[in-house]
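Risk register update: the risk of archive-format incompatibility is retired. Evidence:
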Amino acid sequence: MLDSLSSGVVLVDRNLLICDLNPAAENILGISVNRAPGESILKLVGDEEEFNTILLKVLETGDYYANEFRLPPTEIHAKERILDCRVSPIELGNARLLVELADVTRRSRISRENALLVQHGAGRQMVRQLAHEIKNPLGGIRGAAQLLERQLLDPELQEYTDVIISETDRLAALVDTLLGPGGPPNKHPVNIHELLEYVIRLVEAEDERQLTLDRDYDPGLPEMALDRDQMVQAFLNLVRNAATALEGHGKITLRTRATLNYTIGDTRHRVVTTVEIEDDGPGIPPELQDSIFYPLVTSRPEGTGLGLPAAQELISRHGGLIEFESRPGRTVFLVRLPLFEDSNHHSSTKEPVSGND
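Archived output:
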């Protein structure tokens, strides 16, 4: 019965050494049943402190505990995973703990993706309402400045009205950008790598600080039907965001991959192009991670909080989505873009199957 379970089951002694485990646990922990006995279960989960605390509490109190924790990448599992863990006291031979493990990484990813879609919809509505509220008085300010300019004979005073008019026009242009065009993107075949190289040149030209820019491109990716201007703006916002987080010192990596049978919202795509923008900066503050795609949310005093929402909006016009992972030393924004127009709709409760999972 234990062998047929999809959840991992591990028997552990009072020294937190493995006594036995089922095949699902072998896969989760990355160790065979022949090698596992006598191995420390903590060592196999990267000495996860919270997990250690739970095991010791169950040994001490005899109570049942349940929690969820993250496993860092290992030699066997290249990506971070999220495990649902339940620990119960037991007396079976030398075993004193029964540990149940379930890999809920995909389920968590689906929940987070749905939350991002909801967040993007709310953020877009907020931006448009804010843009309308700003745009209405801008016309009045500009008109008043023009009337005032006609009454001023001193050229030096007219310089002030020129500043008012110029700044009003700049804000109006920003508002128009936030409102965006109502029609679909103007798509043409685009080489995603040529586009990314163009963005890199723009960032290097405007930022004289010493940043290391690495490329890890998949040369097999074909051209995609994209609105080039919109994509340049979206990726420019993301790369600028990474450069600002590094404060002049660090590395930005741009990575491209093809992901098979990936679901975005309620649409399953045969192939999705994933573009990753990774930096080794301090990471996004935990208190902001649930709201960074809302407008005006920023951790920098000089920031506008509009770059990420604008990028999400531009990517969503192409049927895509921006996701992110962040911890100190590694923040990566993952841009998912359907490679082909054809796709199959299905319920968003189904789990996406990724070629890179």
